[in-house]
Write a structure and sequence with these properties.
The chain has about 290 residues and is an alpha+beta fold. The protein is about 40% helix and about 20% strand. The protein folds into two domains: about 5-165, Regulatory protein AraC (Jelly Rolls, Sandwich); about 175-280, Arc Repressor Mutant, subunit A (Orthogonal Bundle), CATH 1.10.10.60. The model has no long low-confidence stretch (mean pLDDT about 90).
Length: about 290
């Protein structure tokens, strides 16, 4: 029996500007649906054949039903309530990629996509093959390096921007982007110390609430969450590749209290540091 579904999870999340979370392809059966649901990150589907429907709320809370067909795509934004389902007589075949990062919103604006404008249409139907090839280069190569997959995400976005019927020019550089980069740079250099959001704001010479607002608008996550997530990623590297105790790893990542570290780690990854280490130890060389 021919397989009608592909799915992959990206194995590296250290890219701040743009990163992948998961991707896949599916030939849906009639009326196959997903939702109602919300996503934590941006999710883009591109339709190769068939038809279907997207029901999503706009920024005012009003729900809209979009009828979609081959050569179109649709965007689901973080926190947006949505349901999508295949046509009863001509179910769609599509591929998707879930992504996020500091540059994600900027690229989507250049495609002409937003929370209130979720439907993508290329200038010409002939462009569909270009978009399909770039997207399937990600889906069909789960074993490739993170650089390969992120590289093809950039190529996919370049293709979507060039081919979009609603493309917009790149926005001019903003001071807000500078503040975000300053905050991230401070975290990268000081995550091992017990720094707080107040410390980051003081380094940027900004009010904490203002920096928090700017950071959330630019990265789609809070500064506190980014700091915790950054620390936990570094902790995972130490758990996997060192013989440090859990307590030592916690202290190296800004958590002098082992219990607080273990709770924070479980909040991010859903399991304790010890269990994660047991599951992810590198195999010994032959």
């Amino acid at each position: 029996m021919e397989k009608n579904f592909k799915f992959g999870i990206f194995q590296n999340d250290k890219n701040i500007d743009l990163t992948i979370f998961q991707y896949g392809w599916e030939q849906c059966v009639p009326l196959h649906s997903y939702g109602p649901a919300k996503r934590n990150h941006y999710l883009f589907h591109y339709i190769f054949s068939g038809k279907g429907y997207l029901s999503s709320n706009d920024s005012s809370g009003v729900t809209h039903l979009h009828r979609l067909e081959a050569c179109q795509g649709f965007l689901i934004c973080p926190g947006q309530v949505n349901t999508y389902y295949a046509d009863e007589h001509l179910p769609w075949e599509y591929a998707w990629v879930e992504f996020d990062g500091m540059k994600a919103l900027e690229f989507l604006e250049m495609m002409g996509l937003s929370y209130d404008k979720p439907v993508y249409t290329p200038k010409k139907r002939e462009y569909a093959a270009l978009i399909r090839n770039e997207l399937m280069d990600i889906v069909d190569n789960p074993g490739k390096s993170p650089i390969y997959q992120i590289g093809h995400l950039y190529l996919l976005f370049d293709c979507l921007i060039r081919c979009s019927s609603t493309a917009k020019s790149a926005p001019a550089g903003r001071m807000k982007d500078f503040y975000i980069k300053e905050a991230i740079s401070f975290i990268e250099q000081n995550y091992s110390r017990p720094i707080t959001v107040e410390d980051i704001a003081a380094f940027c010479n900004l009010n904490r609430n203002y920096l928090g607002k700017v950071f959330r608008e630019g990265t789609n996550q809070t500064l506190q969450h980014f700091l915790m997530y950054y620390r936990m990623n570094r902790a995972s590297e130490l758990l996997k590749f060192s013989d440090m105790s859990v307590g030592e790893v916690g202290r190296m990542c800004g958590y002098p209290n082992q219990l607080h570290f273990s709770r924070a780690y479980k909040t991010i990854f859903g399991i304790s540091p010890n269990h994660w280490r047991e599951q992810n130890r590198p195999l010994p060389r032959a």
